[in-house]
């Protein structure tokens, strides 16, 4: 195993691990406003589906087992904390959350059923006859497709904020770093092992592109608001100067009359 791409993976895993305490601390300090419950539910679903091997594989490295347990438990804790923090959840919010989750989860499941590694559904097949290996492959592909789109509701919530929260900004940067660092990991792995994970690379590219596009529009919108605020300030200062000058001229005229 090449240490070069292993270092990228370790850095990506560290970024992912840090997202959990950062987000929990943000909820504790500033509340759950502008934190998308839909995104956290989809992350939780994706991680559980991705790490099913934790409960099936008889042997696994200590590092992999610890990271899987940590991510799954951390995701469940985050969702539970958000649900408690956002009580009472209004009917409209429940409908919006359900719609956002289903709009990502259902297409991802359909795509994973047909686009995965080492298994395709034969004609007339039944899900009950599906081998365990096929279930694992579909679950893994499903998790990658879901994770690629899961952050969209959170980015939309972040874009609505008038003043950007520093903790929420750090959380999103860590999410971006997690996926961005895995890209060179997979590229270098291909040079070392001649193994190219096209599902993972495609999903990572989609997720990274989403972050870049949303980041561009958020920065552009924020810059435009700053320009408008600056123009408003200049106009207010100019008007105040004119008003002060008119008052001074009136006072001088009254003094001459007196």
UniProtKB/TrEMBL annotation:
Q: Where in the cell is it found?
A: Endoplasmic reticulum membrane
| Chief site of localization | endoplasmic reticulum
Q: Which domain of life is it from?
A: Eukaryota
Q: Write the record's keywords in alphabetical order, separated by commas.
A: Endoplasmic reticulum, ER-Golgi transport, Membrane, Protein transport, Receptor, Transmembrane, Transmembrane helix, Transport
Q: From the UniProt record, list the coiled-coil ranges.
A: none
InterPro entries on file: ER_ret_rcpt (IPR000133)
- Which molecular-function annotations from GO does this UniProt entry contain? ER retention sequence binding
Membrane-spanning regions, if any? 37-59, 65-85, 97-119, 131-150, 171-187, 199-219
Please report the record's description of how this protein sits within the membrane.
Multi-pass membrane protein
Q: Which GO terms describe its biological process?
A: protein retention in ER lumen; protein transport; vesicle-mediated transport
- Keyword Repressor in the entry? The reply is no
Q: Which GO terms describe its cellular component?
A: endoplasmic reticulum membrane
Q: Which family does it belong to?
A: Belongs to the ERD2 family.
The protein's name is: ER lumen protein retaining receptor
The organism encoding this protein is: Heliocybe sulcata
């Amino acid at each position: 195993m090449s240490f070069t791409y292993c270092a990228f993976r370790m850095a990506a895993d560290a970024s992912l691990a840090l997202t959990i305490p950062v987000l929990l601390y943000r909820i504790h300090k500033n509340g759950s406003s502008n934190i998308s419950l839909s995104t956290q539910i989809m992350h939780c679903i994706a991680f559980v589906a991705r790490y099913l091997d934790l409960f099936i594989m008889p042997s696994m490295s200590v590092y992999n087992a610890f990271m899987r347990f940590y991510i799954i438990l951390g995701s469940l804790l985050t969702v539970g904390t958000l649900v408690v923090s956002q009580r009472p959840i209004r009917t409209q919010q429940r409908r919006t959350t359900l719609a956002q989750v289903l709009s990502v989860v259902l297409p991802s499941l359909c795509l994973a059923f047909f686009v995965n590694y080492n298994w395709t559904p034969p004609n007339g097949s039944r899900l009950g006859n599906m081998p365990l290996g096929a279930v694992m492959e579909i679950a893994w592909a499903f998790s990658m497709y879901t994770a690629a789109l899961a952050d969209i509701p959170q980015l939309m919530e972040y874009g609505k904020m008038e003043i950007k929260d520093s903790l929420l900004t750090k959380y999103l940067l860590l999410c971006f770093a997690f996926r961005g660092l895995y890209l060179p990991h997979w590229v270098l792995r291909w040079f070392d092992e001649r193994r190219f994970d096209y599902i993972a690379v495609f999903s990572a590219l989609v997720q990274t592109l989403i972050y870049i596009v949303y980041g561009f529009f958020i920065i552009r919108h924020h810059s435009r608001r700053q320009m408008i605020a600056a123009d408003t300030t200049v106009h207010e200062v100019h008007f105040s100067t004119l008003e002060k000058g008119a008052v001074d001229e009136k006072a001088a005229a009254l003094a001459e009359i007196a």
